[in-house]
């Protein structure tokens, strides 16, 4: 008894001159290089050079002797590496005092700002109360008011009330930024369903307990994005510390570096190492919160 032979059905013949399916299909992950894409890559390369080259120049110049910083031809790789600029900066200027002031103020301002903005955004997003629309409109409209407009009234108010101490006054402008409140309100509307809040209330949680235990864990991406933004705003602030701080030992890094740059001999050899050291906290904050930052920035694009 012979076994039956199973034959596969014959494939239809491909007409002569017709392109095969293998040729028509393009492997996944590959894209056609069009003139528009080439132009886009060119623009991105130019922007990358604009942002990266000054940083490389500052890093390179911080290790050069003063006479070689602006020497010709301009070289990114120092011909002779020296740490004299760093030692002169740390020995002749209260740099660590400026550094501690900037990092401490920025950290306190960021923690307070993130918590206050999240709480205010939660109130605007999930509660109904009289005057809500008017209050939200006033808050949102404050985005159009430049900080220079309220600088003098804010300074007079703090001085008259005896609250002009640097550690308090430097934090005040960043406690409840309108951008942060609006950002948190939008994210809470999209990401926190009312059913979860109702379930927490049924379990006996108070409103504040619901906010701490239920809402805040759901806001991690937006909290990270807001924390990075708040830290950079406070850390890089120049105009407000220039008005409110008078003691050199209480200067922030932008003020301290400005003094060195504005001096009679323009101490570029001290400004460059100071700028390099000043960038370290911002890089650390970005590396620690980069995941939350990217998720928070892309949340509005992927959620309906």
Order of helices and strands: HHHHHHHHHHHHHH
Q: What spatial form do the alpha-carbon principal axes imply?
A: globular
Distance between the termini: 67 Å
Specify the CATH homologous superfamily of the largest domain. Answer: MetI-like
Tell me the strand percentage band: under 5%
**Total number of beta strands:** 0
Count of runs of 4 or more consecutive helical residues:
14
Give the tags:
single chain; 304 residues; mainly alpha; MetI-like fold; 2 domains; 14 helices; 66% helix; disordered N terminus; transmembrane helix; cell membrane; transport; membrane
Give a verbal description of the structure.
The chain has 304 residues and is mainly alpha-helical. The chain folds into 2 domains: 41-82, no CATH class; 87-302, MetI-like fold (Orthogonal Bundle). The protein is built from 14 helices and no strands. It has helices at residues 21-24, 35-61, 84-92, 95-126, 132-141, 147-160, 166-169, 178-191, 194-202, 207-218, 220-235, 239-244, 253-262, 268-302. The chain starts with 20 loop residues before the first helix and ends with a helix. The model is unreliable at 1-8 (pLDDT under 50). The chain crosses the membrane at residues 38-59, 95-122, 134-155, 167-189, 210-232, 270-289. Belongs to the binding-protein-dependent transport system permease family. Keywords: Cell membrane, Membrane, Transmembrane, Transmembrane helix, Transport.
């Amino acid at each position: 008894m012979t076994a039956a032979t199973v034959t596969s059905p014959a494939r239809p013949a491909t007409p002569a001159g017709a392109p095969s399916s293998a040729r028509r299909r393009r492997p996944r992950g590959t894209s056609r290089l069009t003139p528009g894409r080439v132009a886009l890559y060119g623009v991105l390369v130019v922007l990358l050079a604009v942002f990266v080259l000054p940083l490389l120049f500052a890093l390179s110049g911080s290790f050069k002797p003063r006479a070689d910083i602006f020497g010709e031809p301009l070289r990114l790789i120092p011909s002779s590496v020296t740490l004299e600029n760093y030692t002169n900066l740390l020995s002749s200027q209260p740099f660590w005092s400026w550094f501690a002031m900037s990092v401490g103020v920025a950290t306190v301002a960021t923690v307070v700002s993130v918590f206050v903005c999240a709480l205010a955004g939660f109130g605007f997003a999930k509660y109904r109360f009289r005057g809500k629309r008017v209050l939200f409109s006033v808050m949102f409209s404050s985005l159009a008011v430049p900080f220079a407009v309220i600088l003098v009234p804010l300074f007079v108010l703090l001085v008259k009330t005896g609250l002009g101490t640097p550690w308090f006054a430097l934090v005040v402008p960043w406690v409840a930024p309108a951008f942060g409140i609006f950002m948190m309100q939008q994210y809470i509307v999209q990401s926190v369903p009312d059913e979860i809040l109702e379930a927490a209330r049924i379990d006996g949680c108070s409103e504040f307990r619901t906010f701490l235990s239920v809402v805040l864990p759901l806001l991690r991406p937006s909290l990270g994005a807001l924390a990075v933004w708040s830290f950079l705003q406070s850390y890089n602030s120049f105009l407000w510390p220039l008005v409110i701080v008078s003691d050199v030992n209480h200067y922030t890094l932008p003020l301290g570096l400005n003094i060195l740059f504005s001096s009679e001999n323009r101490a570029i050899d001290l400004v460059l190492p100071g700028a390099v050291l000043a960038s370290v906290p911002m890089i650390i904050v970005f590396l620690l919160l980069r995941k939350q930052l990217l998720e928070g920035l892309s949340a509005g694009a992927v959620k309906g």
